[in-house]
């Protein structure tokens, strides 16, 4: 807060030519009406309730409007980094706790649930080979459990009083960054990039089957298996991965480095966590597009929407082709 003391001699170096104020003939109880400074910032001013009769001056407290301060310092760009709005987002994790918290999630939740969950179901049901419907239902339940476990874990490792809903709060400085527009553009750009990289991969390494035979079998087995698969791939998976990799990881990284570096690092981790070497490049591209969308809008709505649409497109292609 900028404190300005206006006195008989100008006070703190301020000259009478730089300010207009109500003169001493007004009663002491009269409100302080105006203070116009020759500056580019807007100042919100109020007088102290104490009037000093010995110096016959008002003590006025002024502060810059935070929105105008950010805009002025960045050449009318409302964000410190230009493209990215994540500097305006409250950082959920302390930098020294980031990697320990993420490692805890990886080894206690992600790997056991995602890669060992179906094996546990097979042991419990005493079925060496699960039928497609059981696989789909089990996959949905396992991912819901992992999502809830991740939220509980990060709640206790995040900064005090941090709320999960902060990822979805809209910033009034982001009115021109509509998440719906970002979702449509991001999805179209993602599909184009994946199509081009697939063509390039086919030219370099030969064509490979597009369909996942296990996923196709699940989709064709029954209505229950189809609904369970759609819920898992289009709702639970996007919500889980966006909260973890974009919400907690990318937001925390962007507070310690440039947003481009943060997007690249989080995308590499996102791709590596899937443990699929043949799809590493495509998963990295997906992570970059989702990360850029999150950086641009400042909330997770757009990245979740793009992720859900892409997974839905994958299910449609698998089902029909």
UniProtKB/TrEMBL annotation:
GO terms for biological process: CAAX-box protein maturation. It comes from the Eukaryota. GO terms for molecular function: endopeptidase activity. The chain crosses the membrane at residues 102-124, 136-158, 178-197, 283-306. Keywords: Membrane, Transmembrane, Transmembrane helix. Residues 228-313 form the CAAX prenyl protease 2/Lysostaphin resistance protein A-like domain. PANTHER family: CAAX AMINO TERMINAL PROTEASE (PTHR43592), CAAX AMINO TERMINAL PROTEASE FAMILY PROTEIN (PTHR43592:SF4). This is CAAX prenyl protease 2/Lysostaphin resistance protein A-like domain-containing protein.
């Amino acid at each position: 807060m900028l404190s300005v003391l206006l006195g008989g001699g100008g006070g703190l170096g301020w000259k009478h030519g730089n300010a207009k104020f109500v003169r001493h003939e007004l009663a002491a109880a009269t409100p302080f009406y105006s203070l116009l400074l020759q500056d580019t910032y807007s100042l919100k001013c109020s007088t102290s309730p104490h009037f000093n009769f010995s110096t016959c001056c008002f003590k006025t407290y002024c502060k810059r409007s935070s929105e105008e301060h950010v805009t002025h310092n960045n050449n009318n760009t409302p964000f410190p980094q230009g493209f990215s709005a994540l500097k305006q987002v409250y950082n959920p994790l302390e930098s020294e706790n980031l990697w320990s918290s993420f490692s805890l999630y990886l080894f206690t939740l992600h790997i056991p649930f995602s890669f060992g969950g179906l094996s546990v179901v097979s042991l419990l049901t005493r079925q060496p080979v699960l039928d497609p419907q059981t696989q789909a239902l089990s996959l949905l339940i396992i991912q819901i459990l992992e999502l809830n476990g991740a939220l509980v874990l990060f709640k206790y490792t995040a900064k005090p009083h941090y709320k999960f809903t902060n990822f979805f709060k809209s910033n009034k400085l982001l009115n021109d960054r509509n998440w719906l527009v970002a979702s449509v553009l991001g999805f179209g750009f993602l599909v184009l990039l994946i199509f081009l990289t697939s063509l390039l991969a086919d030219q370099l390494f030969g064509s490979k089957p597009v369909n996942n035979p296990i996923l196709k079998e699940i989709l064709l087995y029954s209505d229950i298996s189809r609904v369970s698969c759609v819920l898992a791939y289009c709702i639970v998976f996007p919500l889980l991965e966006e909260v973890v990799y974009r919400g907690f990881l990318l937001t925390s990284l962007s507070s310690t480095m440039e947003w481009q570096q943060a997007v690249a690092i989080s995308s590499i981790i996102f791709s590596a966590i899937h443990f699929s070497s043949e799809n590493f490049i495509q998963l990295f591209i997906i992570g970059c597009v989702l990360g850029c969308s999150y950086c641009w809008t400042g909330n997770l709505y757009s990245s979740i929407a793009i992720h859900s649409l892409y997974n839905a497109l994958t299910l449609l292609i698998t089902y029909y082709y």
